[in-house]
Amino acid sequence: MAQLTGTQRGAYVQAMFARIAHRYDLINRLMTFGQDQAWRKRAIALTELPPGGRLLDLGTGTGDIALTALGAVPRLRQVVGGDFTLEMMRVGRRRNQGQHIRWSATDALNLPFPDATFDAITSGYLMRNVGDLDRAWSEQLRILKPGGRVVCLDTTPPPQNLLTPFIRFHMQTVIPTLGRLIAGASEAYTYLPDSTVRFLTAEALAERMQRAGFEAVRFERHMFGTMAIHSGRRPG
Ligand SMILES: C[S@@+](CC[C@H](N)C(=O)[O-])C[C@H]1O[C@@H](n2cnc3c(N)ncnc32)[C@H](O)[C@@H]1O
């Protein structure tokens, strides 16, 4: 299914996340050995959000990055968590009651916000899933304020080295087994490694961001090269 594109990919991804929403956070913690929260913190640091700023966390899921931002940046004016899978946001809203996250039914390919609205946009494990990558970047560029920053955390095809057999075992055996045992959904957790190896390399993704119009684009790798955090800025 990782080869689907366009609206077919969107429909597949939405149904998949609706199925695993109730177990999503737990499996994340287990398969990353608890490291995922550290990368979310790093993503927020890279936004350079000013106090009083406005953040959109796109593909927010259960809202982990939005929540991290509320804890890390003082006096944010607004934190919007946008996603097109309502079940994921329902789980997040239940867990994060009392937190000032504005949950928004949002398709990354058609963002329901006016131009130049946000000081920063984050996304965690979203961009690998969208049906039209260029459209998703151009929508984010449009709703960022000039000078605003975009930060994208996602899995990335790992480099070939001595660790390759261990990484392959983790991705192709451990992760689908966790998905089957904990969420009863091994297919969703086969999609994760499949879509990762099919995704653009970190270098190619940075190039696509530049082509979309972002400047100061850079990326850093984490977890033996299997995760990347890309960042860029809207010119102006
Ligand atoms: C892997 S989850 C990530 C959740 C969260 N960002 C995190 O860091 O754990 C990916 C989320 O992206 C959402 N998503 C995928 N494609 C989307 C699209 N085109 N528009 C909006 N949300 C999308 C899914 O519904 C899902 O909740």
CATH topology: Rossmann fold
CATH class: Alpha Beta
Per CATH, which architecture?
A: 3-Layer(aba) Sandwich
Any idea what the CATH superfamily is called? Vaccinia Virus protein VP39
Q: Which structural class fits the helix and strand makeup?
A: alpha/beta
Tell me the series of helices and strands, N- to C-terminal. Answer: HHHEHEHEEHEHHHEE
Largest sheet: 7 strands, mixed
Distance N to C terminus = 39 Å
Give me the oligomer status: single chain
Name the overall outline: globular
Mean pLDDT: 93
Strand order across the biggest sheet? 3-2-1-4-5-7-6
Radius of gyration: 17 Å
Task: Count structural domains.
Answer: 1
* Helix content class: 40-55%
pLDDT below 50 for ≥5 consecutive residues: which ranges?
Answer: none
Bound molecule kinds, no repeats:
S-adenosylmethionine
* Structure summary, number of beta strands: 7
How large is the count of helical segments?
9
Instruction: Report the β-strand fraction as a percent range.
Output: 15-25%
